[in-house]
Backbone:
């Protein structure tokens, strides 16, 4: 991700790396009632979905279902239903699930949904935006744009840390208050060992790494990080703060993958080893046992590079530095990296808070329209650039990441959100200051 502020000021062609389309439950059929019924195939989700949905509105975009998992990852399950009374159907049931993998079975019984969410139909976010821009009464719009509800359970199943290649089978049943039992379809989840990830999980090029990065939080694959590091040594631009931030966040969230990476470094080339050691150190891991497996020259090179390396800045510090006009937007890129690695709401909200610099943003827009040259770097100019970069990047992510769209909708209705930020969040698609010319 290049410097956002420079793009916003000068204009020019730019697009984000390829992003996976959002999972959607399908298009509703107009004027055709849908009978209330259970959709019997369990959804396998990352356990972090519970945190992703905190503070959101009752209706959200569908999370990405997992088809593959890795050692140490935590997963949960959900069940969907459709029809007018789908929420009552889901809420009234008692559920049981059995996860079978590696010759052992784990049963979760007497479960009730911890939360039930409406799932948006395809195009629901854009339809809502159009209604808001036209000042059309949107009462009941959320219900009309959701044909499916999803019941999420406080069920936490962890892939064993020493898991071998195989397939996990998830079986389940729902029992109604009247005693009727509905057997659910068996869901299957492919489990990759760390050895398989290292053997088969390579990337063809940096473009493929970029695409993987842009959807990582939807389907984390921490054991593939070694392949990304192998390609990084050929990146002529060198390690950028946002790239380092992404890798560090991946390692922090996946201790089994970090430990596995340390065990494998002795067989890697020297550049990859030193880069990995720096990332692991930044992520807070103890490297003492790892270093004993590496040549003495590596110890010296690592210590020298670590001493000379510039510490990563605090990405949440948006203070102005007139000697570094790109300081704020560099940190903004780092915040997006945190989101892409974790799906966390906090870094996205920090970017949205830059929309409070609206007046400075208008001044920068006037400067762009006039075609005049910049006479001096001022705090107002830098705030204006950050406003434009924040709005542009938020608009891009809203269009390509359903979770960010859900964040924005929640903030727009949150009474704690300052009025100026609410207003600007409502113009992400149409605001001229947020467009790249």
Residues:
């Amino acid at each position: 991700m290049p410097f956002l502020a420079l793009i916003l000021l000068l204009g020019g062609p730019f697009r984000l790396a390829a992003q996976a389309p959002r999972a959607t439950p399908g298009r509703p059929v107009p004027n055709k009632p849908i009978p209330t019924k259970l959709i019997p195939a369990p959804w396998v989700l990352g356990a972090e979905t519970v945190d992703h949905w905190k503070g959101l509105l009752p209706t959200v975009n569908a999370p990405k279902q997992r088809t593959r998992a890795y050692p140490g990852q935590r997963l949960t399950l959900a069940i969907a239903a459709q029809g007018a009374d789908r929420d009552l159907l889901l809420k009234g049931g008692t559920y049981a699930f059995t996860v079978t993998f590696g010759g052992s079975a784990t049963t979760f019984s007497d479960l009730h949904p911890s939360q039930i969410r409406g799932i948006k139909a395809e195009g629901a976010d854009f339809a809502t935006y159009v209604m808001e821009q036209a000042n059309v009464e949107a009462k009941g719009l959320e219900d009309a744009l959701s044909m499916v509800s999803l019941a999420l359970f406080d069920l936490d199943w962890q892939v064993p840390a020493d898991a071998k290649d195989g397939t996990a089978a998830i079986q389940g049943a729902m029992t109604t208050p009247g005693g009727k039992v509905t057997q659910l379809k068996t869901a299957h989840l492919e489990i990759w060992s760390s050895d398989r990830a290292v053997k088969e999980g390579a990337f063809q090029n940096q473009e493929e790494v970029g695409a993987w990065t842009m959807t990582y939080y939807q389907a984390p694959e921490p054991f593939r990080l070694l392949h990304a590091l192998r390609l990084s040594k050929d990146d002529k631009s060198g390690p950028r703060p946002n790239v380092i931030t992404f890798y560090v966040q991946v390692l922090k969230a996946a201790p089994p993958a970090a430990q596995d990476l340390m065990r494998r470094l002795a067989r890697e080339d020297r550049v990859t080893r030193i880069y990995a050691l720096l990332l692991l150190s930044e992520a807070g891991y103890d490297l003492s046992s790892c270093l004993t497996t590496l040549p003495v020259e590596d110890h010296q090179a690592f210590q020298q590079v670590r001493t000379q390396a510039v510490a990563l800045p605090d990405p949440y510090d948006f203070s102005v530095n007139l000697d570094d006009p790109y300081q704020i937007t560099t940190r903004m890129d780092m915040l997006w990296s945190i989101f892409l690695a974790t799906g966390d709401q906090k870094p996205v909200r920090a970017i949205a808070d830059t929309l409070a610099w609206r007046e400075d943003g208008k001044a920068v827009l006037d400067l762009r329209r006039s075609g005049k040259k910049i006479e001096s770097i001022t705090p107002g100019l830098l705030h204006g650039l950050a406003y434009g970069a924040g709005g542009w990047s938020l608009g891009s992510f809203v269009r390509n990441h359903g979770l960010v769209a859900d964040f924005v909708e929640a903030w727009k209705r949150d009474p704690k959100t300052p009025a100026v930020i609410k207003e600007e969040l409502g113009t992400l698609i149409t605001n001229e200051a947020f467009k790249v010319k």
User: Anything to note?
Assistant: The chain has two domains: 1-20+193-437, 37-183.
